[in-house]
Write a structure and sequence with these properties.
alpha/beta, Nonspecific Lipid-transfer Protein, Chain A, Rossmann fold, 2 domains, 18 helices, 11 strands, globular
Length: 433
């Protein structure tokens, strides 16, 4: 207990946190400001584990029920820790253990062994009912675009698709590749709104089934196709446009050069690519060990400075860079509130331990955007100097066209009503064919 208490006193200097140790002793930490939060550590071995490796073990112990929150919730606890600053937190961590995490992740990201299918299945091949608990109606599992601020999650996810479609400068008849196609919502939106053909590739067998089913029921199988395919093995194909949303975080820092070289190979000379990814302000060296182990194995969130050199070496031109600093924090809050509100369903689907794991993941991710200055960056790329207008006014103009399309687009059906979903008639795109 003494070692943990010493560490916590150095870490928690502001906020209002009370810790009850396994001995029964209660200690108040911080300066008493903000929301009062109380946690209890169940056993002495848990206290030792936190001191040894806080980045990994605190989350594990919470999931196992050996650390409990008695006042507030796990988001409140993590917020106090994060609000006390990363530099302060670094001084109390076990430097040797932290270095081991960094070396392990740096090594794995550079190994030639392809574990992408395994890593993707670990997260995305979970029971589809889980994602139905907290995602929007279109199952967009990436940052929404809250423009204007205050719109609902469903409206913000639609605004995200609209914003990306506008930046792609889509024209009827074009062929589009989506790298990491999720559950098919983006591909269907692009095809319906702009009169184009989309090939979506994924490494998730569960997402592939859902996407193909959705496209068939929507009457889009002739224009929207999905494949179980690694982007690295695509051969002898070129596309007018490429879009990738929320996939780049899984590429791995050792593969950035290979990724952008392949995108350049797959893109026609006058083509345009839009890459939407999480970024952070400093080179991180490694992902949080708990997130890497339990949620996104092989994941890595880069600084933009780690990405741009590979873009330049691929001979792709950066046409536009946009930073969305708070939108993912707002998205994650909506997901977390929805998920917690349906706790009983989540527990029935898996168990209490899984519920705590997913709650911890959503809370930790939200605090990363609130306190660690994570953000979303959108890179617009092209091999051509003239593929994109010289000013950004076209984005707003195309978004206006897409809003008119959305007014007449038939509503999306929730996934859990598929058994009774009727076939949909073809609708006209926003950009006339």
């Amino acid at each position: 207990m003494n070692a943990l208490l010493s560490m916590l006193r150095r870490l928690v200097r502001k906020g209002d946190m009370t810790v009850t140790f396994s001995s029964g002793e209660r200690v108040a930490l911080g300066d008493g400001t903000g929301k009062a939060v109380s946690i209890r550590i169940i056993d002495a071995e848990a206290e030792k584990a936190i001191v040894q490796d806080p980045g990994l073990r605190f989350g594990e112990l919470y999931v196992d029920g050996r650390v409990t929150v008695e006042n507030g919730d796990i988001f409140d606890v993590l917020s106090i820790v994060k609000d006390n600053g990363l530099e302060n937190a670094a001084t109390v961590a076990n430097t040797v253990v932290g270095l081991q995490h960094v070396l392990r992740q740096q090594l794995l990201s550079r190994l030639p062994v392809n574990r992408n299918r395994h890593n993707v299945a670990h997260h995305y091949d979970l029971d589809r009912k889980l994602f139905n608990l907290f995602l929007d109606e279109d199952w967009q599992y990436s940052c929404a675009y809250f423009e204007p601020r205050g719109i609902s999650l469903d409206e913000a996810q639609l605004a995200k698709k609209r914003h990306i479609a506008a930046k792609l400068l889509l024209e009827p008849g074009q062929k589009v590749l989506e790298v990491g196609s999720g559950w098919g919502g983006m591909a269907m939106y692009l095809a319906e709104s702009s009169g184009i053909e989309v090939t979506g590739i994924t490494l998730s067998e569960e997402q592939l089934k859902v996407s193909r089913d959705r496209a068939a029921r929507r009457g889009l199988s002739d224009r929207v196709r999905f494949e179980l395919q690694d982007y690295r093995t695509l051969q002898n194909r070129q596309f007018d446009r490429i879009v990738s949303v929320g996939m780049f975080e899984h590429v791995g820092i050792g593969n950035y050069g290979r990724f952008f070289n392949k995108m350049n190979e797959l893109l026609k000379p006058e083509g345009v690519m839009l890459l939407h990814s999480i970024g952070q302000v400093d080179k991180p060296w490694a992902t949080n060990p708990w997130i890497e182990k339990y949620i996104f194995p092989g994941g890595y969130i880069p600084a933009v400075s780690e990405v741009l050199p590979s873009v330049e070496h691929s001979r792709l031109l950066v046409k536009d860079v946009e930073i969305l600093p708070m939108h993912y924090a707002w998205t994650l809050r909506a997901w977390r509130e929805r998920f917690v509100a349906r706790r009983e369903e989540a527990v029935a689907l898996y168990d209490e331990r899984f519920f705590r794991m997913w709650e911890f993941y959503l809370a930790a991710s939200e605090t990363a955007f609130l306190y660690d200055k994570h953000f979303i960056f959108q890179l617009q790329l092209s091999p051509s100097l003239d593929a994109v207008p010289a000013s950004r006014g076209y984005i707003e103009e195309r978004e206006r066209q897409l809003i008119e399309f959305e007014k007449r687009r038939p509503p999306l059906e929730p996934v859990n009503t598929w058994d009774v979903m009727p076939q949909k008639e073809r609708i006209e795109p926003a950009i006339a064919v």
